[in-house]
Each structure stands twice: as C-alpha cells, then as structure tokens.
Design goal:
Number of helices: 3
Helix content: 40-55%
Strand content: 15-25%
Distance between the termini: 24 Å
C-alpha cells in the first residue's frame, strides 16, 4: 500500500467525500480543500505528492489560479 498524500480540491462536497473515501480505501492519505484559497493553504501545509483539482470552482478562474499557483511552487 502507498502512503502518498493527495490533495483533493473541489467545491462539490459530495464528490470530495466519495473520492476521498475511494482513495483512502486504496491506501492514500487524502487532504481536502473546497476552494482555491483553501487549496493554496493546504498545499503549503501538507506538501502533497499529487493534487487533484477542479479548475471550475467558486468562480470561473479560481481553480485555474490555484493550479497556476501550485505549478509555480518549487516544493
């Protein structure tokens, strides 16, 4: 089993809960965020191995801005 950490970001709470459960059942550690801003904070705190990010969140550009920010981070 893996111990990789996945940051799951989506503003649809049901999707996050179901997907997080599926990933955890397959051995992953899952951190969740429900907005672009929360995603940036969690990414800094957790340093995930993978980010699964809905780019169309609370505003049309929020997800794209969060994705751009994540890619720019050297860590």
């Amino acid at each position: 089993m893996s111990s990789d950490t996945i940051l799951l970001v989506d503003d649809e709470e049901d999707f996050v809960e179901m997907t997080a459960s599926l990933l955890e059942n397959n051995g992953y550690t899952v951190e969740t965020a429900y907005s672009g801003e929360e995603a940036r904070d969690k990414a800094l705190d957790v340093g995930p191995d993978l980010v699964i990010l809905d780019v169309m969140m609370e505003t049309e550009m929020a997800g794209f801005e969060a994705a751009r920010w994540v890619r720019e981070q050297e860590e």
